[in-house]
Amino acid sequence: MRLENGSRVVIVGGGPAGSFAALHLLRLAAEAGLRLDVTLLEARDFNRPGPGGCNKCAGILSSTIVRNLHTLGLTLPPDVIQSELNAYVLHLGGTQLPIHRPDAARRIFSVYRGSGPRLGEPPFPRSFDGWLLDQARERGADVRRVRVQSIRPGLRPIVATAHEQLEADLVILATGVNSRTPVDPAWGYRPPRTETMAQDEVLLPGGFLDESVHIFFDHLPGLIFGGLIPKGRYANISLLGRKLPPDAVSDFLEGQGLASLFPGGATLLCGCTPRVVVSPASGYYADRFAAVGDAAITRLYKDGIGAAFVTSEAAARTAVGRGVSRADFATGYRPVCQRIAADNRFGRLLFRLWDVPRDVPFLLNAWRRAIMAEATQPSATQIHTRVLWGMFTGDESYQSIFLLSISRAALTGFVRGMLRGWRDR
Predict the structure, then answer these.
(1) CATH entry, 8-59+112-192+279-342, from 3.50.50.60, 3.90.226.10, 3.40.50.10860, 1.10.150.50
(2) Number of H helices and number of E strands within the chain?
(3) CB 357 within 8 A of CB 363
(4) Domain spans, the chain
(5) Helix (H, G, I), strand (E, B) or coil at 111
(6) For 272-283, how does the pLDDT look when each residue is reduced to its tens digit (9 = 90+)?
(7) CA–CA gap between residue 216 and residue 236 (Å, rounded)
(8) What is the spatial distance between Cα 76 and Cα 194, in angstroms, rounded to a whole number?
């Protein structure tokens, strides 16, 4: 089972995972002297404001994905970038703790996945997903605005829409987890487990710098963390937690004292409750079939676009360089997904460890003192700052962050913070 000149690859889903899959396939095929018919099917219009034209996420691009875009010859246009983020401000126990970017070269940006909030006003921001889809079209993908009804197995899989049935030499599933999967049960594919977020948009409140993300941890049952993320004229509110109530965003604004920033009341412009992946899918590859991005696996809570790039590249490289059989994907694609899954285990451990000082004021204050003591040191020695920056941006692997957090330098700083706390009592 190998792709040949004229082989048809049908990509179902035109978000970043689908666009990256098309871009990688076309680049790798050209390098191999192979001509492919790449057809990309997507029902949404990413130039439409509101949830209907959006992939429903906070929209932060890590420095890793910005660098990876360059490997495809892509540079973010200025009108796609909403804000460059230079600091995270942690709100802990009634105090604010700024975490500044540890390395000037590690630039991260906020973007819109659609064309801004549903109740926003012109001029509407340019969609990152729309721009990326345009790049796939310009590089040679046949992009069609249609909804896929089913993907059926066979000697050559059949991708069915309301008006046609496409026979494919390879089907790539890139639908994410926020819509019904069109995969026929006969494939044996089961989507990943998910948790639900609560999101909305507000006009950017006065007093909040447009280069800082504000992170909150308190005042909402089940909240893991909440973020206020600047996006041009607006701010995105993203809440991650377990069993969040239906009015979680309003409760969050009130409980954090943010309602006072809106004298006339906070007008919520674009609510949604997206699902985020917390486990790998099963059966995510088969003969002439591979799922990529969220439909297969992603990084825990962070840098989903980066994981979409990595999984799409691995699947495309396997298809072009090895073949499209189940055995080919098991050899060339599965190890990449397994590495992401292994790294996510360190992520779960980090978030559990993070819960400990949050619930013990003495430990929380010791940890805060350790971070503050680093502020005057060279960036290379700001260990706790780097740990937090990596956790919140997805800019480093969870394994490297975990090892850094238990390093001698990190533990020494924490112990010194505890001792200062004892002396100040």
Answers:
(1) 3.50.50.60
(2) 11, 19
(3) yes
(4) 8-59+112-192+279-342, 194-276, 344-424
(5) strand
(6) 999 999 999 999
(7) 13
(8) 30
List the strands of the sheet with 148-152, edge to edge: 148-152, 158-161, 165-167
| Residues shown for the chain | 425
The helix/strand/coil state of 89 is strand
Dist CA 400 CA 108 (whole Å): 19
3-state secondary structure of 110: strand
Phi, psi of 265 (to 5 degrees): 95, 140
CA 134 to the chain's CA centroid: 20
List Cα–Cα distances, 199 to 44, 58, 114, 272, in angstroms: 19, 8, 14, 5
CA dihedral 128, 133, 139, 142 (to 10 degrees): -170
| pTM (predicted TM-score) | 0.94
End-to-end CA distance of the chain, in Å?
Answer: 71
pLDDT in tens, 356-367: 777 777 787 888
29, with CB counted inside 10 A (0-12, 13-18, 19+), is: buried
Q: Hunting for tokens 């660098």 — which residue is that?
A: 67
The one-character DSSP state at 190 is B
Supply angle C-alpha 232, 237, 239, rounded to 5: 150
pLDDT beyond 80 at 218 = no
Q: Please state, in angstroms and rounded to a whole number, the distance separating the CA atoms of residues 421 and 417.
A: 6
Under a CB-based contact definition with an 8 Å cutoff, are residues 150 and 160 in contact?
yes
Q: Give residue 207's region: left, alpha or beta (phi > 0; psi -120 to 50).
A: left
Residue type, 78: P
User: DSSP labels for 325-358?
Assistant: SHHHHHHHTHHHHHHHHHHHHHHHHHHHHHHHHH
Say if residue 196 is exposed, middle or buried (CB neighbours under 10 Å; 0-12, 13-18, 19+): middle
